[in-house]
Each structure stands twice: as structure tokens, then as C-alpha cells.
Amino acid sequence: MATGEQAYLDLCRTVLETGSKKEDRTNTGTLSVFGHQMRFDLSQGFPLLTTKRVPFRLIASELLWFIKGDTNIQYLLKYNNNIWNEWAFKQWVESEAYSGPDMTDFGNRSQTDAQFHELYSIEMEKFKEKIVNDDAFAEKYGNLGSVYGQQWRAWKTSQGETIDQLKQVIESIKVNPDSRRHMVTAWNPEDVPSNMALPPCHTMFQFYVAEGKLSCQLYQRSGDVFLGVPFNIASYALLTHLIAHECNLEVGEFIHTLGDAHIYSNHIEQVNTQLNRTPMNFPTLKLNQSITSIFDFEMEDMEIVNYESHSAIKAPVAV
User: Fold this and answer.
1) Which residues are documented as binding site for dUMP?
2) Catalytic-role residue among 12, 201, 216, 247
3) Mind listing the pLDDT tens digit for each residue in 222-267?
4) Which residues of this UniProt protein bind dUMP (predicted)?
5) Is 5-70+164-305 a CATH 3.40.50.1100 domain?
6) Feature table: binding site
7) Domain limits of the chain?
8) Lesser CB count within 10 Å: N end or C end of the chain?
9) So what's the pLDDT on residue 111?
10) For the segment 122-174, what is each residue's pLDDT rounded down to a tens digit?
């Protein structure tokens, strides 16, 4: 089985060469394979892809957002992180309070209609400004519902209480490292149909301790191979580093198991561009050693060192 960046590039080739054509909820269309696994040895470098530039600050700020249990994009926008904007914006433009231009199917229309794209960009900027500066507006339209942060930190029970899964799993790793129950799940069947802007794609993860090293395996039900999966790889690698740091362990492997791994039809050209590039060495991650709890880390406490990559490759987000 391929490791390092080659594992990701092989996934891209597998989907392009063997994927089945499938329709999807965004009406974009995909090539898709079912069931794929990649392994990354975290002791050999931090898996931030080099065949295209991947912005670490976006990955880190999103992960801190999850760790804090936050579900409102206001926090992300204050760090100039726009990766969840479209889902909140969709809620806003579909609400009765919205009275601006018709934004139906804005994700696809903004890619094919230059005049509409300009209109959409104006409306999105106005929306973002209101989210950042108007707390009441942000509370109503910036909240994405019971997405990752809430499920990780405040899972609802049938008794009306909450479970802090992330805190519990860290404590479990410390006191009973050989346990086979170091698990966190974001897939809550009660919340999926009605209380989430986007049902969780990375649905559950498990930690494993052996020989003083912490490994993590993620099960991801649905993976946007070009745009999403590179972020997921780096995000869970970072989470593994942070928890290993708190638990006084070294890092082991990140194992990424995918259910429906797909490339959107409007990403195929970009994927081929990436596959024609030569990978470089992975960078390293530097953490502030004075921080002892994962819940105390801030952006300035994490740094990527010696990151060299090819240029970024842009592609539209399917919403």
C-alpha cells in the first residue's frame, strides 16, 4: 500500500481510472469509488500536500473551531477562514428575511455566468460583514446547527444531558491507553435529517496507542477527493499531534478510510494538472511546548516549518 503523498495521488488516479459515474445532491456529477484506505506515517513529516499549495491556517483554524465546540462561522470569518461560508449563506438566501437578488443554485451559476458571479460576490461580502459585525444576525444565520463541534463536545443524550466526547477520549488515552474504545463520532442519526447544514462527512475516528505512539483512524463516509480530502488528511494529522502532545506520546500513523471517494466532474481538469506535478518532501509541525492542554491551543501556538509546494489550484465548491 502506498504511503506519503503517493497514497493520495494513487487515490486520485484510482477514481479517475475506475470510478463510476454518479449523480449527486449538488447536480454536479461525480466519478466515484467505494472503499479506499490511505496511511500516513506522521513521524516522517506532516501530511500537507505539496503537489498543490494547501493553506495550513485554514485547516488549523477550522480544527480549533471544532475543538472549541463552536458551530457558528463568525469565529472562522474573524480568522479570514471562508471554507464554511456557502452553507451558512445558503440558509440566509433561502430564508424569508432575505430580499436580495435571486441566489438559487448560486454554486453552479457563479461558475458559468460572469454577471451572476459578480452579483453573488457582492451579496456574499455583505453577508460576511454582517456575520462578523452583527452578533444577533450571526446567531441566527451563521450557525450551522449540530455539526462537528457540537457532536464532539456536547453530544445530546436522551436524558437531556450532553457528553464531551473529545475530553473523554483524551482522558481515556491517558488512563487506559490499551483500550479499544478511544472513539469519537459525529454521526448523530437524530440530528442528520433536520438539524445540520451539512451532515458530517468525516463521521467517526478512533485512536490507538502502541509502543508510546498515538495513531488515529478516520472513517469518512463521503470524500471530495480534490478539495476536501487534502484538508481532512491535514486536519486529523494535526488533531493526532495535539492529542499526542497532551498525552505525552509520540505520533504514529494517520489512517484515512473512505466510503464514497469522488471527484466532481468540474474538478477533473484540476486533478490531472495535479497528477502531472512531482511531489516534494512533507513539512514538519512545530507546537508550542508550553501548552499542556489541547483546549488551550490558539493559532499562534502551531507552525508549519519548511513547507515547499507547487502553486494552488482553484476549483468550485459543490454546495
Assistant:
1) 25, 180-181, 221-224, 232, 262-264
2) 201
3) 999 999 999 999 999 999 999 999 999 999 999 999 999 999 999 9
4) 25, 180-181, 221-224, 232, 262-264
5) no
6) 25, 180-181, 221-224, 232, 262-264, 318
7) 5-70+164-305, 72-144
8) N
9) 77
10) 999 999 999 999 999 999 999 998 889 999 999 999 888 999 999 999 999 99
